[in-house]
Amino acid sequence: MASPDSDGRIFLGASVAAKSVHPQYLTLRLANRHGLVTGATGTGKTVTLQAMAEGFSRAGVPVFAADIKGDLSGVAAKGEGKDFLLQRAKEVGIAYEADTFPVIFWDMFGEQGHPIRATVSEMGPLLLARLMGLNETQEGVLNIVFRVADEQGLLLLDLKDLRAMLVWVSENAKSLSAQYGNVSATSVGAIQRQLLVLENQGGDKFFGEPALDIRDLMRIDRSGYGTISILSADKLMGAPRLYSCFLLWLLSELFEQLPEVGDVEKPKLVFFFDEAHLLFDEAPKALLEKVEQVVRLIRSKGVGVYFVTQNPLDVPQSVLAQLGNRVQHALRAFTPRDQKAVKAAAETFRPNPKLDTAQVIMELGKGEALVSMLEGNGTPTMVERTLIRPPSARIGPLTEPERREILRQSPVGHLYDTPVDRESAFEILQRRAAEKSAPEKSGPAKSAPERVPPAGPWGRPTVPQTGTAPSRAPSRAPSSTRMTTTEVVVRQVARSVASQVGTQLGKAILRGILGSISR
Fold first, then answer.
1. pLDDT tens digit sequence for 65-111
2. Are 331 and 361 a contacting pair, CB within 8 Å?
3. Region of 503 on the Ramachandran plot (φ > 0 left; ψ -120 to 50 alpha; else beta)
4. Cα(337)–Cα(332) distance, integer angstroms
5. In whole angstroms, what is the distance from residue 235 CA to residue 222 CA?
């Protein structure tokens, strides 16, 4: 019998024709050239995804995958040698071996896995605009909000930080418009309304800290198996924009943080993007260009991306051209669009003179697929009709007690289960507003050596308020409670400088000017 996995290859299944068995392999060295798994509902895509994830894990390659229906969670439990599994193993020429794999469960809502979070700053204005469905003008205002926050050193960690920043921008729209372009109250209001919609969809649970450290997606267990990170996405699918933007953000983070490694013997991480059509539906041109760029360049970071969807037409041609390893399950040609999809899928494979590819796509049974993998110097193999190998772990979901036990033993629970709310834009802007609105109270001069009270964040000096006036030095005349015209002018200039600078430098300038006045 053929060895399931050997020589840096993952055994996917076998083509069976005229009583001969031809194994089909995915070469690890070429696995970072990305891939595509397509097929109609109920044709076996999830089982194929599980078999591939198991193969990568056995090879020491970490995997990240979204679990839309909960079925993929069974990879954490040992499989059973049921009759249909034993029969399929015999058909493809291997011995069935039950196995279990290291799994970490994640859940954006923190219900079926560890909370997975990102900060607003990390998400950035482009993805956030896509997430909230903003138009071009509103996206421009959002970019101004991020720019001003950066310049003032205000951290945007969660949605309340962004909301506080929007309020501040609205209040200072006139001065900001002169520097950055028009900031209209209408645009700010539209962003605030969409922010409320996002919060109602559960976005407030995603944005915050501790943010995900991508190194926790790239763990290897003691036995040398790569960890399979599973995102519980059954509830998340109710907010498809949040789902797609999160996965695209994750790809972008991998691209930005991982070092260049070029061609490697095996990937550092493999990323399965289930329901991939959600990423491209109604996506603006700028976002599509970003996806294409990430997919094209992330290969050199050692990351393989595999899109899983029902129809190959769901993926734009510019992205489809980057996907070298392909598994095509059955498609049904009931409508003109279905017929077009069948034709398009057939044309993307390297032809096999022994197969009518378009006809076979409509005849495939459950657990069968047309397979073409890269080999040699990166050329695709001729398409073959293939029986997919049976997974070694359980096919089907875990029970709730089993999931809870895995979460209890998880190596990352202590890192993410407790939220953190450190000082950021919301707290800083609240404090500034409180200090700015506090009434000024002038007091008599203090004994020498005199110390001028420090200036507040908006350039307003904070004067201590006490029940009795402090003692005066006998050598100094009593200070007048009314400022001279020169003092008023100088104080206003100082406030303006501190307000514009907004930093420790501005505060230092203010303290120096006020100190000279008091003398």
1. 999 888 899 999 999 999 999 999 999 999 999 999 999 999 999 99
2. yes
3. beta
4. 10
5. 32
User: Helices 285-297 and 240-257 sit at what angle, rounded to 10 degrees?
Assistant: 40
- Contact predicate 163/113, CB 8 Å: no
Tens digit of each residue's pLDDT (9 = 90 or more) over 148-172: 999 999 999 999 999 999 999 999 9
9 strand-pairing partners: 6, 27
**Tokens representing 424?**
């950021």
- Let me know: does 225 contact 58? Beta carbons within 8 Å: yes
Side chain identity at residue 192, one-letter code: Q
User: Which mean pLDDT values do the consecutive 10-residue runs of the chain (519 residues) have?
Assistant: 74 82 93 94 92 96 92 94 94 93 95 94 91 92 95 94 95 90 92 92 90 95 95 86 86 90 92 86 76 88 93 88 94 85 89 92 93 92 94 94 95 94 94 82 48 43 42 40 44 45 42 41
SS3 305: strand
What Cα–Cα distance (Å) separates residue 277 from each residue in 92, 241, 242, 243? Answer: 32, 11, 14, 11
Helix (H) or strand (E) holding 384: strand 384-388
Backbone angles phi, psi at 327, to 5 degrees: -130, 120
Please tell me the total number of residues recorded for the chain in this structure: 519
Q: How does strand 228-232 pair with strand 379-380?
A: unpaired
User: Among 92, 16, 17, 114, which Cα is nearest to 48's?
Assistant: 92
- Is there a contact between 484 and 458 (Cβ–Cβ < 8 Å)? no
DSSP conformation letters of 307-373: EEES-GGGS-HHHHTT--EEEE------SHHHHHHHHHHHHTSPP-TT--HHHHHHH--TTEEEEE-
**3-state class (DSSP) for residue 78:** strand
Return all residues near 30 (Cβ < 8 A) that are at least 6 apart.
324, 325, 373, 374, 375, 378
Say if residue 316 is preceded by a cis peptide, omega within 30 of 0: no
Q: In sequence order, what DSSP letters do the residues of 6-46 get, joined into one string?
A: ETTEEEEEEEEETTEEEEEEEEGGGGGG-EEEE--TTSSHH
pLDDT digits (tens, 9 = 90+) for 487-499: 444 444 444 444 4
